[in-house]
Amino acid sequence: MDVQTERDQIREENAKLVFDFIRDYIQVRGISPTFAEIGAGVSLSRAAVVRYVDLLEARGYISRIFNVPRSIRIQREWL
What we know:
- Helices cover 61% and strands 5% of the residues.
- The chain is mostly helical.
- The chain has one domain (3-78): Orthogonal Bundle (Arc Repressor Mutant, subunit A), CATH 1.10.10.10.
- A two-stranded antiparallel ribbon has the order 1-2.
- The chain starts with a helix and ends in a 5-residue tail after the last strand.
- 16% of the residues are buried.
């Protein structure tokens, strides 16, 4: 496996971890997690969480209101 393929695989695995954490957190608590809570839950820095949340939003898995805390929502088709 080349380096780029390995990076892509790690990125996809981390994106799935972030998505699963957000989905499970909302199901259990009824509100979305903060970026700090996501980072602590999946062992990523806040900066990395921001990148993955942006990626998930761009792919249509989640939506959120910019600069509004706890505004992440899972899109219905991914519940």
